[in-house]
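Appendix B, example 12.
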Amino acid sequence: MTKSKGTLIKIMILVIVFSMCMTISTIIFPDAYAEESSRPISLKGGGWEKGTFSDINEEQRNDQDYITSKLLSKNKRDIVRFNLEPIVNPGIKTGHVVSYTYKEDGLGINAPHLEVTLQQNNKKIAAWTQSSPLPSSFTLATHELTEIEAKKITKYDKLVIKFKAKCDKTCTKQGKDSISISWAELKVSTDIQSVTNSQVQIYDDHSSKNKPPPKILGVGIYKFDLDSDNSTSMQFDSFSYSIGSDETDAKKYGERSHYKKYGTYYDVDNKSTQEFFAEINQPVQLQVHLTDSEASTKIEHLSIFLDNSEIYPSTKNSNIELMFDKGKPITIIDHQKLINNATISSSFEGRDLWINFDVVFAKSIEKSSVILQTWNDNRRAAYATITNIFEIKNSEQNLIEKNNSTKMKITNQDLSIKLNTETPKGTLTIKNYGEYISPEHDLKLIISGHIEKEVLKAKTIQLIIIKPDQSSSSISALVSNEGFYSMPIILNKKWQEGEYTIIAKHYEQRIGEMIFNVSSK
């Protein structure tokens, strides 16, 4: 929620000052107003194909992240509802404006339209439609409520915004298309005269409802290999990293030469899709990087949620919540007893606050999203979500082996295949096109992965394929500036059972190796 000052006219204030606190005994604000803004803070119901509330609730419009409906054909629709951040009753029923940015994705010949509804819980306050054809790039739309509509609102802490993407009978069944939304906000004018003759406390710590929440900069997720020396351990000076964690690591695990530590830093403004894997009973560290516009010492709370919902991660559906509250020990909500033990530490580094959770998991966790929630002394929350990147495996399930290779068996019963291997230098993944493996089909695969920043030196990666007859081939794939690569291949045009090996090499460094058997049984 954000307040911005409006025009103030003919202001007369009588002030009595004492004890670092000012009591305003008389305030007269003729024709004065301010504005409050409310944006989505959680999922209320339904859900679109991609994205959630944190993708559309930035304080300033950002078209780089957004939510997208499913592909729509004739007479199909897709609905999502978001809770809006609570605001105080403004005292007047004018100046209620809903704003949002939207577009049609242009994937087919259909022309869906967008229906928008403002609700109080399930009661409709106002509804309107953006008729087709919709713009092909993100476009700002505003809708001001009538005074009659605004008078229907009695609880400003129960407001909901609903988006319905819809294709009517004029659409075809084949030419499917979708709608995206990148930002949404309700702005309400507030009558300042409602505080006339009241007492207002203004303290020297500058606390105010105008104060923004803390900013979540990112989260680093790392794992420890306690059985190895650190000859291949990561160097962390190339990206954001909590220097204070080195001290707690030393207390827990001894000298740096006694273990390896490696993982990834996820910048919330540059969303990475690189996945993180660790094993049961393997120490994991989550470093959350926060800052506050006034002072990071004002940050009072942080929660980390893990939710394995594939499409719409939510704090309400989370399996685990780890909580930091200033001056208190760690709080853990873990009904399924997935965690063996967890500790917490924090450090102020420059203007920023790092809050570090060291966790050992007792059970496997399916691929999950990491959801972060924080607030400062003003108790205004900020959220960030890193989607579908965190997984804990049984040692038997884990595809990371000591020799950095993965061995699997593929049979003609397999429709969907995805194999992963991870080393301190990067990742290697193979998956198929979603068709059965059989002698009647070419063996088509997609080889993809990521190269760690300290290893990345060139724009290509070499993929070496060794077939069961020991013949081999080598192809090159382009590598992005962030270290990602992907290459579709036909592994063999003719069915050939036996052992295949795929090796990924970059600048003479072996990123990963995967060995798998193809069998008709």
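The first strand starts at residue 2 and ends at 5. The mean pLDDT is 78.
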